[in-house]
Amino acid sequence: MGELMECMCQECGISHIIDLETISLEDFEGGGGKLVSNLFCSECGGQLVLNKKAGEEPNYRLK
């Protein structure tokens, strides 16, 4: 198993932990992130965006 990445669904916001070796990426129009082009959300079928390495500190904070 390779490096695990956290991907977030653009539709429902659920995070998925996915092996980097199974992900194909494409540029995200209008944003600085990367879209996952070959996998989709298991809950709603929405588009996934690569967020960060699994287990890393989130790049956002809730107040």
What would you say this structure looks like, in words?
Helix content is 0%, strand content 44%. The chain has strands spanning 4-9, 15-19, 25-27, 34-40, 47-53. With 63 residues, the protein is mainly β. A hairpin with a 5-residue loop joins strand 1 (4-9) and strand 2. It has a 5-stranded antiparallel beta sheet, with no helix packed on it. It has one domain.
Any chance you could write out the topology, listing elements then pairs?
Elements: E1 4-9, E2 15-19, E3 25-27, E4 34-40, E5 47-53
Antiparallel strand pairs: 1-2, 1-5, 3-4, 4-5
Briefly, what is this?
The chain has 63 residues and is mainly beta. The chain has strands at 4-9, 15-19, 25-27, 34-40, 47-53.
Based on the model shown, name its key terms:
5 strands; mainly beta; single chain
| Unreliable residue stretches | none
The quaternary organization reads as single chain
Through-space gap between termini: 35 Å
Number of domains: 1
Give the strand line-up of the largest sheet. 2-1-5-4-3
Strand content: 35-45%
Share in helix:
under 10%
Encode the helix/strand succession as letters.
EEEEE
- Secondary-structure content class: mainly beta
Beta-strand segment tally? 5
Q: Report the C-alpha radius of gyration, rounded.
A: 11 Å
Q: Please report the number of helical segments.
A: 0
